Amino acid sequence: MITKKTERVLLLGIDLGTARTAVTSNRQFRGLVHSVVGYPKDIIGVKILNRTQVIGSEAIEKRALLDLYHPLQDGVLKEASDRDLEAARALLKQVVALAEPAPGERVCGIVGVPARAALSNTGQLLGILDGLMDIAMVVSAPFMVAYGQNRLHNAIIIDVGAGTIDLCAMRGTIPGPESQVSVFKGGHYIDGLLESALRDAHAGLHMDRYLAQAIKERHGFVGEADRRVIVPLRIHGKPAEVDVTDSIRITCETIVGDIVESIKRMLLLFDPENQSLALANLVLAGGGSRIRGLGAMIEAQLKDYGQARVSLVDDADFAGAEGALKLATELPPEYWDQIGAVVGG
Ligand SMILES: Nc1ncnc2c1ncn2[C@@H]1O[C@H](COP(=O)(O)OP(=O)(O)OP(=O)(O)O)[C@@H](O)[C@H]1O
Ligand SMILES: [Mg+2]
User: Fold this and answer.
1) Residue 1 falls within a domain, yes or no?
2) Which domain holds residue 58?
3) Mean pLDDT within 199-219
4) Ligand 1, atom 18: nearest CA belongs to which residue?
5) What is the CATH number of the domain that holds 114?
6) C-alpha to C-alpha distances, 151 to 105, 178, 205, 227, nearest whole angstrom
């Protein structure tokens, strides 16, 4: 369907992630929601909350009363039960509502999802988006980052997310399955390892995933430590100052080998004369790109291949959503079906 010039259109760029979902609009709205939906465990929860559904950080805060559903896991849409798909729909509905579409306005959105979901869950995702937007397109998140950063040719995007690390080789065309690789070692993987490492190193330490994640987000690094990292924790219930430096370094470094090996394999996709250009055009995105020293360590481990250069996106939270919005703004929705899978129109 051709959009009439007079019709008001709300364009959305959405990055549906395992941990968090970012949304941006052509009216400069930006929102970030934890990708989790909670349903009261029983009637008491319904009574206390006065609702049958809680979305985002509030669901995490009130998790004692709720069964939590995370729509994405290991880079794909979870489909174990109807509730999983219902949760995905509720989350996306909330995200669209946050951007405040005006009554009667046409809502057109591009939704970036982890590369694996873009390749294997497109039908389900479009089914969910149908009815939430007038036109929606699903594309892979690392491609959206590439588009937003204008790295469309001779570049490799490395999106270090919570569920997966997605790599995407940009060779001047829309990347297909052959240009994308997912490694099952995102931030959640590091959190699990860090939790165990800290427990093993300090008998009686009170530790869980959420705490391990918070420590990693505050202090995460790879390579030489420039200072010891000491954090206040509890051992056998008593306050203690705990040196977490080595545990952080060792667990954060577990992702580097896979990233480097994947880059080496991806380089072979480029014509030989372009390989050194791609090597000098590596882009780190996703929340995990904030791990200090990651870019430098990747560069160092690729030195046998030439001069590697890693740059970081400015805004790891919104690089995917901004790229999606940029594409939505530059290409009229009636042409989206030339780029990816579309519903509506
Ligand atoms: N400062 C930081 N240092 C290290 N890791 C961080 C930091 N900030 C966020 N992270 C991690 O980044 C991950 C979230 O990144 P992001 O929002 O890109 O993931 P996502 O898009 O939800 O996941 P995916 O792309 O796998 O679906 C989490 O594991 C989080 O702990
Ligand atoms: Mg992501």
Assistant:
1) no
2) 9-145+318-344
3) 96
4) 286
5) 3.30.420.40
6) 32, 18, 45, 35
